[in-house]
Design a protein that fits this description.
14% strand, 352 residues, 4-stranded parallel beta sheet, alpha/beta
Length: 352
């Protein structure tokens, strides 16, 4: 007797998922495959109604353009890579967002690679990972590893450094961290403070190191005493812990925190310890976060224009991608001191 048996395919025998093709998009949109190709490659010779129909069909079908094929037509993959350390830091996060916005305006997507360890091996792995994703260029944000002579980034990949290349080995966008720190310290000394204490960021941060070095140089040039450096980790909590210690030092009349979050923690610690700001101690920060103007008291700080940084990074990458070699290799972004009511002259009995 013959019995019918239902047969089932082994999971290994299942066919691979078939992604929608350009022909499928063309059929749904009622246009030719050539029109779909023009839309996929962002060509201008397509009227807007047709473009919208094609884009709608792509979205409904889940169509994914063949980036390799598009690169053969356009000479680019349409994606930029970003490698960044300490993504939780306000400045790095804002820089990444600004680069993404500028890339979008230039019709590029952004692939992000966060790296924890500041080592040559970690940087190389990050670059290899992004290159496998077919990016047209890479922005490296605030890396102290560029001060390591042995570090060599892939010569075939356009690279721009955002705030980190002191040797000027690569096209770079430079936040003038030193100028920003100098302006804060000079402001406080100009108010009559005998010296300025500094709450620095992490020791492995390029930006923190430059701000601390400028703080020390400015005090030394003014003939002011240089107090021991205090260290935080960019967080308000670390600022609070440092602030509790500062509150116990009656000789302290001015504090420069390397970012606004730490300054916020210092403000709370001083308030809880019964120290008035700015009556007893002036406090200044760095970054000009959106909340800085609404703290109690409003915070004196250094404003950094991250949107300009993003535009400069993308512009320098496009110069390389498109073979323009006559443009500048460095773009500088000058920070601006914003004076608010958290800083004032020291108490009369402590003035110089």
């Amino acid at each position: 007797m013959v019995t019918d048996r239902k047969t089932t395919k082994s999971p290994r025998s299942r066919p691979a998922r078939q992604w929608p093709s350009m022909a499928d998009v063309a059929t749904m949109a009622g246009v030719s495959s050539q029109t779909v190709s023009r839309v996929a490659n962002n060509r201008e010779n397509v009227d807007e109604n047709t473009r919208e129909k094609v884009l709608s069909a792509m979205q409904e079908l889940g169509y994914r353009p063949n980036t390799a094929a598009r690169a053969l037509v356009t000479g680019r993959f349409g994606a930029l890579g970003v490698v960044s350390f300490d993504v939780g830091a306000h400045g790095n996060a804002r820089t990444l967002a600004a680069i993404a916005d500028a890339a979008h305006e230039a019709d590029f997507s952004v692939n992000f690679m966060g790296v924890r360890a500041q080592t040559e091996a970690a940087v190389r792995r990050a670059f290899q990972h992004l290159m496998l994703q077919s990016v047209d260029g890479i922005v490296l944000v605030e890396s102290q590893m560029l001060d390591t002579p042995s570090l060599r980034l892939p010569p075939s990949m356009p690279v721009v450094v955002a705030d980190g290349d002191t040797g000027h080995r690569y096209p770079h966008v430079d936040f003038d961290q030193a100028h920003g720190a100098h302006s804060v310290v000079s402001h406080l000394l100009g108010l009559g403070h005998r010296t300025v204490w500094h709450l620095a960021g992490p020791r492995d941060s390029f930006a923190a190191r430059r701000r601390a070095e400028s703080w020390q140089r400015t005090l030394t040039a003014a003939g002011a005493p240089v107090p021991p450096v205090l260290y935080g980790d960019w967080s308000a909590e670390s600022g609070y812990r440092a602030g509790l210690g500062i509150a116990r030092r009656r000789e302290v009349t001015a504090v420069f925190a390397a970012n606004d979050q730490m300054a916020l923690g210092v403000l709370r610690a001083l308030r809880e310890s019964g120290r008035d700001v700015p009556g007893d101690i002036s406090v200044a920060g760095f970054d000009d976060i959106a909340e800085a103007a609404y703290l109690h008291p409003p915070l004196t700080t250094v404003h950094q224009d991250f949107e300009v940084v993003g535009r400069h990074c993308v512009s320098l990458l496009l110069d390389q991608i498109e073979g323009r070699t006559d443009g500048p290799r460095r773009r500088a972004v000058e920070p601006v001191l914003v004076v608010r009511s958290s800083t004032a002259p020291p108490p009369p009995h402590t003035s110089a």
